[in-house]
């Protein structure tokens, strides 16, 4: 081993790693009420703190990360549950108000309420002479 290589080795004690888990598209049901759209997204194992929701150029993007944790005082003996990352994007129409989206996570289901936009009132447009 050359001196240059040996000098560089101690700084590389923490190798760069990637998260090798599947990327899943969460199963989603969409309901409509008089005032909003309601999205129910199945994201098992995802804590509310591990969910990110963003709206950019009327595209709603939801991402989440699950990680299996042993209950307190337990030691893992056999595992079949696997960690997963979730991601799904929806294009929002002008009929909804993305600034008022509400999100609640409980029991592996993320509930997004997307309020409808207030309809613009009808108006008359005056015509001018050229």
UniProtKB/TrEMBL annotation:
| Signal sequence extent | none
- Compositional bias per record (Low complexity), positions renumbered to this chain: 1-16
Per the UniProt record, the lineage of the source organism begins with: Bacteria, Pseudomonadati, Pseudomonadota, Alphaproteobacteria, Acetobacterales
Q: Which CDD domains match?
A: ACD_sHsps-like
Name of the protein in question: Heat-shock protein
Q: Where is this region: Disordered?
A: 1-24
Source organism, top-level taxon? Bacteria
Gene3D superfamilies the record matches: 2.60.40.790
> Where does this protein come from, organism-wise?
Caldovatus sediminis
Concerning its family, UniProt says: Belongs to the small heat shock protein (HSP20) family.
Domain named SHSP: residues: 18-130
Pfam families the record matches? HSP20 (PF00011)
């Amino acid at each position: 081993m050359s001196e240059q290589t040996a000098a560089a080795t101690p700084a590389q004690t923490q190798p760069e790693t990637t998260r090798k888990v599947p990327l899943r598209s969460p199963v989603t049901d969409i309901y409509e009420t008089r005032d909003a759209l309601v999205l129910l997204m199945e994201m098992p194992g995802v804590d509310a703190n591990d969910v990110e929701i963003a709206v950019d150029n009327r595209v709603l993007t939801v991402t989440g990360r699950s990680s299996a944790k042993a209950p307190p005082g337990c030691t893992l003996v056999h595992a079949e549950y696997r960690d997963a990352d979730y991601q799904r994007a929806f294009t929002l129409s002008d009929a909804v108000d993305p600034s008022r989206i509400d999100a609640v996570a409980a029991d592996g289901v993320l509930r997004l309420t997307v309020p409808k936009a207030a309809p613009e009132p009808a108006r008359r447009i005056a015509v001018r002479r050229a």
